[in-house]
Amino acid sequence: MSTPLFWRVLMAIDRGFVALTGRLEVSGDVPQELLGKPLLLASNHIGNLDPFVLIAACRKIGINPRFMLAGGLLDAPIMGPALKACGHLRVDRRSANVGEAMHRAVEALRKGGDPIAVYPEGKITLDPGMWPERGKTGVARMALGGGIPVIPISQWGAHEAVYWGNLHVSGWRDFLPYLRSWLSAIRKRPTFKVHFGKPVELSDLSAETMGDARRAHERIMIAITEGLVPLRLDEPDLPRFHDPTRPTTGSSPWRPA
């Protein structure tokens, strides 16, 4: 499956947008032998900008990610058809069809082509220290069910560019926190750090064995967290950047001791 031209154009625009907003630093890579084969990219989720940063980082190492997106985004006027044309996949996390969505993703991956990027947490972390929250086993189930390798990706810095903002946007004033924080970032030029870790070892686990999906999920989240530690050595406890709009009601079971 080749990358749609429209998506290539959008990714080129995205790279310019990220370069305008801050400085991108990428470490690690995807093993050459995994390129062009079924592959899952599992990342932590720290802010509204980090999908854009993740896309730019992937382009920098020569891969074109597709995303698993909430159904609401794909149903939106104008944006929805555009996202579908780019080859992104649908998942309705609260629907009874989640299993079906995972099956579609595995089938899409088996056909080859571009890897699929996923956020195991399912949402932006609200842990006070911005360590990954518990997350769900969907990524692990896809990996085990399809025998698909998982590359853990750790991100830091994107939270400094765009505020968490509002859960519900009902008018133009609700966009102001996003706009003000982004304009401030253009001036301050935060550093966006993205690390591609080594494939998570899952060969001893099976989709048919009870408890293995949970074990696989734990390994994926621990790998993401371990990759995050060196990206924030000078911020081991709380993030230096304070976002006044972001709740701190979550908790991370993966936080390093």
Brief summary:
Helices cover 36% and strands 13% of the residues. The chain is built from 8 helices and 7 strands.
Q: Which whole number gives the mean pLDDT?
A: 89
Reading side by side through the largest sheet, how are the strands ordered? 1-7-6-2-5-3-4
Shape: globular
Point out poorly predicted stretches: none
Count of runs of 4 or more consecutive helical residues: 8
Radius of gyration: 18 Å
Strand and helix order: HEEHEHHEHEHEHEH
Task: Report helical residue fraction.
Answer: 25-40%
> Would you tell me the structural class of the helices and strands?
alpha/beta
User: What percent strand?
Assistant: 5-15%
Main beta sheet strand tally, sense and closure: 7 strands, mixed
- Tally the beta strands: 7
Distance between the termini: 43 Å
GO molecular function: acyltransferase activity
Keywords: Acyltransferase, Transferase
Biased composition (Polar residues): 246-257
Biased composition (Basic and acidic residues): 235-245
